[in-house]
Design brief:
The protein has eleven helices and ten strands. Strand 2, helix 3 and strand 3 form a beta-alpha-beta unit. Bound molecules: magnesium ion.
């Protein structure tokens, strides 16, 4: 059954705007953003996802929806912002087999995450395309004015921290593609981490006033560390043995040390990498406890402008640093 644009909006998307001030039930030409709470500023971020590039064409549509939302929420968290709402542009192939059930699942995925993260759909557009499923989410959040977390701001002498665990998603992708043999039942968690990001929306705002610089790890820990190093004009030294791994990821690395490369460069972690003064260690640990996520000190900030991954002896990881690591 074909659905017209208005029917699509009415049936699947308008209910998602319920409770959003200024969205007018998606019945008007545009939405209103209220003035942000006194002393705060709007933070805006946008991400586009294309089937075949960012997800598989036959991925369940509820997961596609949640991933699209969550990569944006992760960017808001990286700025220290509290999520508020989002707009959505969706292009569906004309020849999609069952658009009604695809949209049904998609809207259910959005609804579940709206409830989880306390956000609403503010507006959007839904069109047909001769290409693959393509969607774009623009997310809005608020941050205390002038106190947003930037990539610039890390200073020599700062500690370097990361939230959660690193590498689960990279190993999960390899498990899902059959590129890596399963090592036990915990592997399902690795695949889950790949399929559904867990943005650190509680930790990000809690780091405002504590972190000197922050970003979310999407490209890979080492690549994203380079982004911070460049923007801050510093060197970041990462102690490989301090990088937190889940029990499942550790089991894979114990079996095959070469997988440490995937862990450190694989990406899709959606953890927060941040720098902070050593004098703030206690406050950071307490803030993370309140946010319900572990944080780990993985290194330090030094003068210079590069990223070094060092072993327990303090020397750049042998073999890795030269050969396969050159592309950093
Ligand atoms: Mg980011």
């Amino acid at each position: 059954m074909a659905l017209g644009e208005f029917e699509r909006i009415d049936r699947f998307f308008a209910p998602l705007s319920r409770g959003a001030d200024g969205a007018f039930g998606l019945t008007d030409d545009a939405a209103l953003l209220p003035a942000p709470p006194i002393g705060t500023a709007w933070v805006v971020t946008v991400d586009a996802l294309v089937a075949g590039i960012h997800f598989l064409a036959d991925d369940p549509s509820d997961l596609v929806a949640r991933k699209a939302l969550r990569v944006n929420l992760s960017d808001l968290a990286a700025m220290g912002a509290q999520p508020y709402g989002y707009t959505l542009a969706l292009a569906l192939p004309k020849d999609l087999a069952d658009p009604v059930s695809w949209l049904q699942g998609f809207a259910e995925g959005l609804g579940a995450d709206q409830a989880q993260y306390g956000i609403h759909l503010l507006g959007g557009d839904s069109v047909s395309t001769t290409g693959p499923v393509t969607l774009s989410v623009t997310a809005f959040g608020t941050v205390p004015r002038g106190r947003e977390l930037r990539r610039a701001g890390a200073r020599a002498g700062d500690d370097l921290w990361v939230s959660g665990t690193i590498g689960d998603s990279a190993l999960g992708l390899r498990l899902q593609t059959g590129d890596l043999d399963s090592s036990g039942p915990g592997d399902a968690d690795l695949v889950d981490r790949y399929r559904l990001p867990q943005p650190r929306t509680a930790l990000g705002p809690a780091l405002v006033g504590l972190a000197t610089a922050a970003l979310d790890v999407s490209d890979g820990l080492v690549q994203d560390a380079r982004h911070m190093a460049r923007r801050s004009g510093v060197s970041l030294v990462i102690e490989a043995s301090a990088v937190p791994l889940s029990a499942s990821a550790q089991r894979h690395v114990d079996r095959s040390a070469a997988l440490l490369h995937d862990v450190l460069t694989g990406g899709d972690d959606y953890e927060l990498l941040f720098a902070a003064l050593p004098s703030r260690r206690g406050e950071i640990v307490r803030a993370a406890e309140r946010a319900g996520i572990a944080v780990t000190r993985i290194g330090r900030v030094e003068a210079g402008e590069d990223v070094r991954v060092v072993g327990v002896d303090g020397r750049p990881l042998g073999g890795l640093d030269r050969g396969g690591w050159d592309h950093f």
